[in-house]
Amino acid sequence: MQISLENLLEELSGIEVITNPEQVAKLSEDFAHFSPVLVPLLTGKVGDAVVRPTNENEVLRIAKACVKYNIPLTVRGSGTGNYGQCTPLKGGIILETLRMQEIKWIKAGLACVETGVKMAVLDKKAQEIGWESRMIPSTFRSATVGGFIAGGSGGIGSVLYGQLRDRGNLRAVRVVTLEDEPRIIELRGDDVQKVAHAYGTNGIITELEVPLAPAYGWDEFVVSFPDFMTAARFGQALGNSDGIIKKMISVHTAPIANYFNALQSYIPKDSHCALVLVAESDREPFQSLVRDFKGEICYEKSARDAGKGISLIEFSWNHTTLHARAADSSLTYLQSLFLNDPQLELVQRMHEYFGDEVLMHLEFIKVNGVVIPAAIQVVRFTTSDRLNEIIRYHEAQGVFIANPHTYILEDGGMKTVDYEQLNFKRMVDPYGLMNPDKMKAWQ
Ligand SMILES: Cc1cc2nc3c(=O)[nH]c(=O)nc-3n(C[C@H](O)[C@H](O)[C@H](O)COP(=O)(O)OP(=O)(O)OC[C@H]3O[C@@H](n4cnc5c(N)ncnc54)[C@H](O)[C@@H]3O)c2cc1C
């Protein structure tokens, strides 16, 4: 161990530290293995030690020690990010937040939590008073609130409430800086965007204030269709049906549903299908819509059984990719938005053009008040060149690609430098110690 790291750890007495190399290596990884492009870039990138603070004061001590000994610091929640976001590229300290689990307060429409509170735990508590998270990632059981805000984009609930970056979907954050004398800064209103989705490059989030939504009982259905475009149009029609309250519309071309082992006995083989969550009170109009599209409900789970067994949520978003890869590890994925395609013509063109090579998986979300298809396509990987060709073709046709095959903040969904985040980093992380090499603008 380097002398400076030894000194640093000595200064952290009373804080849990992990130095076992195997454990540290495990805690240096996330789900970047979804990408055959990222694997060779990230292999062997490990931290030197993991620290597990239990409160903000301990975070302040860790920040101060890292600055004093010039040691990089990478924050980690549950490590479910999928672009190597919490993999330390330059070693150093991994600050894991899972022991910071206090729900500070919760009231109608709002909650204040420590960063390491898991999304599922927050939801359970909120449901006791008739509320729930506006949106959750499909990793809700393990993902932390802080990790979702710093690394995620949206999820189940985005069809009603938009994406995390939309004004109102995060109310306040407390951040610890890596200055010579670390301090706590509270950001509210639009200022929260300075650290939201910044991969932990510009401040350690310790506490967040997040909005809640009224909790419904959610019925879960799988509806199968004879062809993919009917399933896609059904998804869009359900999205557009203002009188039917829904939380998730996840549409899959065949043979994706064949990868869902736990649903095999319900979903006919090679089905094109929609996995949906609909408010239990809206079951009847929902069934009428299914009839209009000649769909067949092949699986259902009533809201009364929520919490029992598996939820369809765990087959949506990037869980689709997870199940597909469990069946065939040569599969990878894309992330995209069809921003101006109300008739789904572009969806159809891409679906037909790539056929079996790029399997269409749509998640309907609200963008600027309009429900549109986002896609997390399952891709049969051959070479990196071919993958880039597929990405370029999509972009040339007008599909927005949030590239999941890069760990660079700006090269994913953002595309441009966010000067607000960069300027905030200049102030709170003047030595560039936080998650180094992830923010291109800083380099
Ligand atoms: C199977 C699968 C399904 C997924 N589904 C979704 C989905 O539906 N929607 C979605 O948006 N994402 C999804 N993701 C991505 C990921 O799950 C989410 O981003 C998740 O919310 C991350 O939470 P986490 O606690 O695991 O964060 P981590 O993976 O631990 O961290 C994510 C990023 O946030 C930073 N970070 C964590 N905590 C802090 C903090 N306190 N302060 C500053 N920075 C911090 C880390 O440094 C890292 O850059 C999925 C990933 C997988 C593998």
From TrEMBL:
GO biological process terms, semicolon-separated: lactate catabolic process
Pfam families named in the record: FAD_binding_4 (PF01565)
UniProt domain FAD-binding PCMH-type: residue ranges: 43-215
PROSITE patterns attached to this UniProt entry: FAD_PCMH
InterPro entries listed in its UniProt record: FAD-bd_PCMH (IPR016166), FAD-bd_PCMH-like_sf (IPR036318), FAD-bd_PCMH_sub2 (IPR016169), Oxid_FAD_bind_N (IPR006094)
Gene3D superfamilies: 3.30.465.10
Single GO term (MF): D-lactate dehydrogenase (NAD+) activity
PANTHER family in the cross-refs: D-2-HYDROXYGLUTARATE DEHYDROGENASE, D-LACTATE DEHYDROGENASE
Protein name according to UniProt: FAD-binding oxidoreductase
